[in-house]
Amino acid sequence: MNETIGIILIGIGLTFDFFGCLGLVRLPDVYNRLQASTKCVTLGTCSILFGVFLMLGPTAAGIKSLLCIIFLVLTAPVSAHAIARGAHRSGVKLWKGSVVDRYAEDKEGGL
Amino acid sequence: MKSKIVLFILGLFVWLLLSWPADGQDFFQHLLVGILVAGFVAFMTGDMFTSRPKHFIQFRRYVWFFYYLPMFIWECIKANIDVIIRIIRPDLPINPGIVKVKTSLKSDTGLTFLANSITLTPGTLSVDIDKERGFLYVHWIDVKDKDVERATSIIVERFERILRRIFE
């Protein structure tokens, strides 16, 4: 039973990872690409790791995959945040169809 | 000193999980090495770990944390489906921009968790924090409102009222 659910979760995770990579190719600029890659890859990888835990049970590898979930959820958004901030500070422009950029407005206003 | 104790306990806990199935004599070996390593790490870096260690023994913070967790996971799944629908539609329905939102959280941990939650939930990615004035700059894949107040009520508020009870 657990094996079946585990395999289903791993399949779902792979699908999410695939769509995250597809978003990386299709979306127009750094910030949108970060959105797709961070969200989909975090949830996809967490899903794969949880599937591994369900399949293996509380063994050495299973417990380690649970720990990996915690560290992944804590660190992946922080790194995305750092990349986005660094990109904006070094002058990467938003996509031409963007609606508003309050960050640039505030920086020019002497932040 | 209290901060060092908190870090020691957390470090030992993670160590024991990493060296999981250990029984009999093995367990005491792992425990001894874990105590030595966690003690060393706590001694060297303990003061940096947390500025308000007594928050770790307040039980209601854990209760709110476990209330926050399922809500966060649900929002995360919704976010993923939302992004996937945007990606696979041929006309690529995005309307991006960076908006400014307000937050009333003050502590570092609270702000970090708020920024992480914003990043993992529908269509938003936090770009920068202005800590003194309490502003967050958020990249939004589908800008519904450019106004600071209304963007705040859409993006931040549902997390903020829970996170305030956990971390403030």
Mind sketching the topology for me?
The complex is a heterodimer of chains A (111) and B (168).
Chain A: H1 2-26, H2 30-56, H3 60-89, H4 102-108
Helix pairs in contact in A: 1-2, 2-3
Chain B: H1 2-18, H2 25-49, H3 59-88, E1 97-102, H4 108-119, E2 124-130, E3 135-140, H5 148-155, H6 157-167
Antiparallel strand pairs in B: 1-3, 2-3
Helix pairs in contact in B: 1-2, 3-6, 4-6
Overall form of chain A = elongated
Distance between the termini of chain B: 21 Å
Number of helices, where a helix is a run of at least 4 consecutive DSSP H or I residues of chain A: 4
Total strands of chain A: 0
Overall CATH class of chain A: Mainly Alpha
Low-confidence stretches of chain B: none
Instruction: Considering residues with a beta carbon less than 8 A from a beta carbon on another chain, report the largest interface and each chain's count.
Output: A-B, 47 and 39 residues
The largest sheet of chain A is: none
Strand content of chain A: under 5%
The overall average pLDDT of chain B, rounded, is: 79
Which consecutive residue ranges of chain A, at least 5 long each, have pLDDT under 50? none
CATH fold label of chain A: Helix Hairpins
SSE order of chain B = HHHEHEEHH
Structural class per helix/strand content of chain A?
mainly alpha
Number of strands of chain B: 3
Shape-level CATH architecture of chain A: Orthogonal Bundle
What string gives the helices and strands of chain A in order? HHHH
